[in-house]
TrEMBL record, chain A:
GO cellular component: plasma membrane
UniProt lineage: Bacteria, Pseudomonadati, Pseudomonadota, Gammaproteobacteria, Oceanospirillales
Subcellular location field: Cell inner membrane
Record-linked InterPro entries: AAA+_ATPase, ABC_ATPase_HisP-typ, ABC_transporter-like_ATP-bd, ABC_transporter-like_CS, MetN_ABC_transporter-like, P-loop_NTPase
Recorded coiled-coil stretches: none
ABC transporter domain ranges (all copies): 14-248
Family to which this protein belongs: Belongs to the ABC transporter superfamily.
Keyword entries, A-Z: Amino-acid transport, ATP-binding, Nucleotide-binding, Transport
Protein name: General L-amino acid transport system ATP-binding protein
Pfam families: ABC_tran (PF00005)
GO MF annotations in UniProt: ABC-type amino acid transporter activity; ATP binding; ATP hydrolysis activity
Broad class of where this protein is predominantly found: membrane
TrEMBL record, chain B:
Annotated GO MF terms: transmembrane transporter activity
Species this chain originates from: Modicisalibacter xianhensis
Any Pfam family: BPD_transp_1
Localisation per UniProt entry: Cell inner membrane; Cell membrane
Name recorded for this polypeptide: Amino acid ABC transporter membrane protein 2, PAAT family
Length: 254, 369
């Protein structure tokens, strides 16, 4: 949909080095190293509790990490609120439970951050919002409230809302896990289209079909560690580690 | 192959469905649907008439409405002459007669502002709201207190009656809500200092009775501050009332904040919105809407408790009515006085209640499934 905006930095989009995170005594992320190139599509999978959601939530500082470095689009993550907000402006996120703002219409959901963060005039923000709502094929619902839409429609609005900020990278946190089966496809279609247009994407998902279609790399996590990372073909056909094999047999076996 | 049916006689018209709307329909559906219910309805109506008839006779049918003095009271029913003769005092207290037009202007402005903000169709809500919060208090202060621009100075000890009640209630309501919101946000803050200041403030003010607060404000405070600093007694009471009710308000608002899914805040963060933007644009609009009943409940309690200022020697509506009862010319009209005062309080509180229900319906966007 958008080509990643040319940035001051020409290095990788995301660089994570020796990332460690604890919840109290529980070590959720152990020495994570991950580099995401511009335009790269990565799918992260793994059993529940493996730390995959926590990992991508660290990228826009929804979760705080205790050790390690995260550099997003050339900006190093610190505790500084201004810097965190600067990073978030370039990182779009889609949540499992959509998290649309229920008191605002679909259009207002998409305009809010454009007007308040990017300081765009309202007319321009609305034009951008309509453009993206059109692309996720939901422009005809622009004046409805989220509570009046189906789950699939809401998730497409959530994707449009994130895209309105023209992010350089999109994070997807199990975007189809809360959807009824017949609605999963409409959301995946939008994501596939987005991938084909060159968006840098980091997706936590169990949709292995999606991983096979669009991923450049599939990452398997377990117990806070990256166990295996490989292009989808070798990942699905010749998984190296036993844990990966077990996981794949469990989710593909039926 | 088709079949054709031919009727050679008219089909008789069916009865229309039972009337479901209108007064008659409502009566039939709710009060007279079946013999047992009809009997119950008639018995209840009889009981109500038996109980309420004397009240109606006393308050309306046999009451005296017109007159100037005690001699105009026939003594059979209520004598509302007591109220009408003292009406000016009940409304203005001891405010000098020559300056009462200033109170009238403020009454009119207050009514106009409330109406403007309450009626959804009227435009420019933002500017009117801004004026109501910033401009109006300044205008009201200069007009009511006077002492500038050639206006006669009217010390607050001469204020009283309905105007004092409305002054206290308006300042209390307008002051306690924003302060309560700030306190509620502060109590949920991750900054230890902010959090503890808010917790201490809330627990202190919520832990003392309002009467104590008023006594402290009027009797104790002057002992602690130097004599040349003279805060007005009404001002001290206003600040006390505002702090007291803001503590209650804070807990009501906090209940609303806790009901909002944390995904809402995260979505705002992910979009790059700052803390105050997230609170002001996403969290508070939803949280405050959820707790409208609690907020209005607090407003109503505040409005009624304005009458407590009588213990520090301020004459609010109720106190002025009570003062009238001791007038040697008007002894023995306590019932009329209290019924009237109760009615005035009830009208204001009931209006707030109805308006809050209307606002709740209006703000409903269909997301509660």
């Amino acid at each position: 949909m958008t080509t990643p905006a040319a940035s001051a930095s020409n290095g990788p989009m995301i660089e994570i080095q020796r990332l460690n995170k604890w919840y109290g005594d529980f070590h959720v992320l152990r020495d994570i190293d991950l580099t995401v190139a511009r335009g790269e599509r990565i799918v992260i999978c793994g059993p529940s509790g493996s730390g995959k959601s926590t990992l991508i939530r660290c990228v826009n500082h929804l979760e705080e990490h205790q050790q390690g470095e995260i550099v997003v689009n050339g900006i190093a993550m610190t505790q500084d609120v201004k810097r965190i907000e600067q990073i978030r402006r370039h990182v779009g996120m889609v949540f499992q439970h959509f998290n649309l703002f229920p008191h605002l219409s679909v259009l207002e959901n998409c305009c809010l951050s454009q007007v308040w963060v990017q300081k765009k005039p309202r007319a321009e923000a609305e034009a951008t919002a309509m453009e993206y709502l059109e692309r996720v094929q939901i422009a005809n619902q622009a004046y409805k409230y989220p509570g009046q839409l189906s789950g699939g429609q809401q998730q497409r609005v959530a994707i449009a809302r994130a895209l309105c900020m023209r992010p350089d990278v999109m994070l997807f946190d199990e975007p189809t896990s809360a959807l009824d089966p017949e609605m999963i496809k409409e959301v995946l279609d939008v994501m596939v289209e987005l991938a084909h247009e060159g968006m840098t994407m980091l997706c936590v998902t169990h949709e292995m079909g999606f991983a096979k279609t669009v991923a450049d790399r599939v990452i398997f996590m377990d117990q806070g560690q990256i166990i295996e990372e490989a292009p989808p073909e070798s990942f699905f056909n010749n998984p190296r580690s036993e844990r990966t094999q077990l996981f794949l047999s469990q989710i593909l076996g039926h | 192959m088709t079949t054709t049916t031919v009727y050679d006689e008219m089909i008789e018209a069916r009865r229309p469905p039972d009337l479901r709307s209108g007064v008659a329909g409502w009566l039939r559906k709710n009060l007279f649907n079946g013999p047992v219910n009809s009997v119950i309805t008639i018995i209840t109506a009889g009981l109500m008439a038996w109980a309420l008839w004397p009240l109606l006779q006393w308050a309306v049918l046999q009451a005296d409405w017109i007159g100037q003095t005690r001699e105009d009271c026939s003594g059979e029913g209520a004598c509302w002459v007591f109220i009408s003769a003292r009406f000016e005092t009940i409304v203005y207290g001891f405010y000098p007669e020559a300056a009462r037009w200033r109170v009238d202007i403020i009454f009119a402005m207050l009514a106009a502002l409330i109406a403007w903000l309450a009626i959804p169709r009227l435009p420019a809500k933002r500017w009117v709201g801004l004026f109501a919060l910033v401009g109006f208090p300044v205008v009201a202060y200069f007009l009511l207190v006077g002492g500038h621009f050639g206006l006669m100075y009217v010390p607050t000890r001469e204020w009283g009656g309905l105007m004092l009640t409305l002054t206290i209630a308006t300042v209390g309501i307008v002051g306690s809500l924003p302060l309560g919101v700030i306190l509620a946000l502060g109590r949920r803050s991750k900054m230890p200092l902010v959090k503890s200041v808010c917790v201490v403030f809330i627990e202190f003010w919520r832990g003392v009775p309002l009467i104590t607060v008023l006594f402290m404000a009027s009797v104790m405070l002057p002992l602690f501050v130097p004599t040349e600093v003279d805060f007005d007694k009404l001002l001290r009471a206003l600040v006390g009332i505002m702090f007291f009710w803001s503590a209650y308000m804070a807990e009501v608002v906090r209940g609303g904040l806790q009901a909002i899914d944390k995904g809402q805040n995260e979505a705002g963060q992910a979009l790059g919105l700052s803390y105050w933007q997230r609170m002001g644009l996403i969290i508070l609009p939803q949280a405050l809407k959820l707790v409208i009943p609690g907020i209005v409940n607090t407003f109503i309690a505040l409005f009624k408790d304005t009458s407590l200022v009588l213990i520090i020697g301020l004459f609010d509506l109720l106190a002025i009515v009570r003062a009238g009862l001791t007038d040697p010319n008007w002894l023995g009209f306590a019932t009329e006085g209290y019924v009237f005062a109760a009615l005035v309080f009830w009208v204001f509180c009931f209006s707030m209640s109805r308006y809050s229900q209307y606002i709740e319906r209006k703000l409903h966007t269909g997301h509660r499934r």
